[in-house]
Amino acid sequence: xxxxxxxxxxxxxxxxxxRTQLLARSLFILATLLLLIGGVQYFVMKNFLYNxxxxxxxxxxxxxxxxxxxxxxxxxxxxxxxxxxxxxxFTPTDTSLGYIQEDGSYVSLxxxxxxxxxxxxxxxxxxxxxQWKSREKIKYRIVKDSEGNDQxxxxxxxxxxxxxxxxxxxxxxxxxxxxEYGERITGLVQMGTETGPLVDVAMRQLVIFLVLSLLAMAxxxxxxxxxxxxxxxxxxxxxxxxxxxxxxxxxxxxxEQLGQEEIDRLSSSFNGMLERLELSFxxxxxxxxxxxxxxxxxxxxxxxxxxxxxxxxxxxxxxxxIRPEQLNSALNSMHGESIRxxxxxxxxxxxxxxxxxxxxxxxxxxxxxLVLEMEPHLRILSGQRMVSFTLAAxxxxxxxxxxxxxxxxxxxxxxxxxxxxxxxxxxxxxxxTGQEAVLSVSDNGPGIDRxxxxxxxxxxxxxxxxxxxxxxxxxxxLAISLSMIEAHGGTIKVQTRIGEGTTFYVQLPLxxxxxxx
Length: 517
Hints:
Layout: H1 5-13, H2 18-62, H3 66-69, H4 72-75, E1 95-100, E2 106-108, H5 122-133, E3 141-144, E4 150-158, E5 187-194, H6 196-231, H7 233-243, H8 261-318, H9 324-356, E6 363-366, H10 367-382, E7 386-391, E8 396-399, H11 401-417, E9 425-432, E10 436-443, H12 465-471, H13 477-487, E11 491-497, E12 501-509
Parallel strand pairs: 7-9
Antiparallel strand pairs: 1-2, 1-5, 3-4, 4-5, 6-8, 9-10, 10-12, 11-12
Catalytic activity: ATP + protein L-histidine = ADP + protein N-phospho-L-histidine
Keywords: ATP-binding, Cell membrane, Kinase, Membrane, Nucleotide-binding, Phosphoprotein, Transferase, Transmembrane, Transmembrane helix, Two-component regulatory system
InterPro entries: HAMP_dom (IPR003660), HATPase_C_sf (IPR036890), HATPase_dom (IPR003594), His_kinase_dom (IPR005467), HisK_dim/P_dom (IPR003661), HisK_dim/P_sf (IPR036097), Sig_transdc_His_kin-like_C (IPR004358), TCS_sensor_his_kinase (IPR050428)
C-alpha cells in the first residue's frame, strides 16, 4: 500500500527515530551557530575594512597640501564672480575628491568623471567642521553619491596660513576687519571611495566561511552517525530486555553501569520496575495459592460437621424404635457439630471483615483491668491447668475492648489446646516498655517445631491436626488475632523451645493508632 505524499513529507520533516532526531537537531543547532558566526564575521570584517580604508584615505589627505588641491588665485575671486575651479589631480575611477566651500557647495577636484560624488547638507558640513574645531575625532560616513552608489567619505579641514577665510559656512567676515574677501578661508576637503569593492571582499570571506562550514558539517555527519549509533547501544539493550520481558519471565535484568548517567538511571529504574513486578506477580501467585488452600480448607471444615449432622439425621429417620439414650446422644452430637460450624462461619466472616477495612471502636481502656475482667472466664477454660497472672498496674491505651478480649481469648485457648489438662501451666503477663504495652501468654507445652514456626499465623494451618480436631479448632484463631493487632498498629511475636513451651507476645502502642469507626 502506497503511503500519501504528505505522510512521507511528515516522516522526513519529523522523523520518529531517536537517532535521526538527535542527528537532525544537532545539525540544525550547528548550522544555526555557523550562520550566526558567519553573519557576525561578515559585519566585523566589513567594519574592519571600512576603518582600514578610512585611515588610508585620511593619511592621503594629510599628505596633500591644500595649496596643491585648490589654487590660491582661484580662491581670491570675489563672491559675486563665477567660480569655475579647474581640477588639478587625477584619482582612481572609484575615488571622488572635492572641496566644500564656505556656502556648503561641493566643488570636484578630480579630472575623473566616472565616479559620482556624494554631497551632504550644509548643516552636516557645519557640524563636521565644528567637531574638527573642538578636536573631536571625525568618523567616516557612508553616503550615497550622485549615481546612487554607497561611498565611504572622510574629511580634512582646508586650513592654511596662506588661505585665510571665514569662521564657518555662510558666515560673513568680521565687521571692521579691513581685510579683503578671500584673504583667509576655512572649508573642508572631502575624499570618498566606493564601498562596493570592500563589500565584495567581506562577501568573499563569508562565502569561503560558509563553504568550509558545509564541508565541516558533511565530514561531521559521516563521523557523527557511528558515534550516535554507539551511544544508543545501551538504550537498544534496554529495548531488547523489555521485549524479552513478560509475565512468565521477570528475571531479565539490564546492566546498570553502562557509562552514561541518564541511561544508567533508566536501567536502574527499569530493573526496579521489574523487581516490583516480580514481587507483585509472586505475591499474586501466593495469594491465589492461599485462596485455593483457604477454599479447600474451609470447604473441608464445613463439610465435616455437615456430614456428621447428616449421618445422625439419617440414622434417626431409619430407626423406627430408638431408645431415649441413643436419641439424646445423637442430638447432643448434632448440637456440638452445629456449634462448631457456627463458630467456623463466624470466624470466616470476621476474617473477611478484617481483610476489607478493619473498623475499630477505640476507647481509653485500662489493659490490666481488661485482663482481670476476663480472669474468671479464662480459669474456667483452663480446667485443671495452673493459671497465673503478672499484671503491671496503671497501663492504659486507646484500644477496641471487644477485639482485644478476642485476641486474649484466642491466645489462651491456643495455650489450652497445647498443654496437658492436668500438668499444664499457663501464664498471662502485662508490662510496659514506655511507648508500648506488652501482653504475653506462655505455656509449658511441647513447643513448635522449627518448620512450623513461620506458618503459625496462616489461616487453617495446624501443626498438630489430631489435637486441633479433638478440641474443635479450625486453625483461624491466630490469624484473626494477628489481623486485629495489626489493625491497632501493633505486632505479635512468638518464641518457643521444644519440650519447654511457647510464648506469644502482643505489642500495642500506647497512643491511638487504629481506624476508629
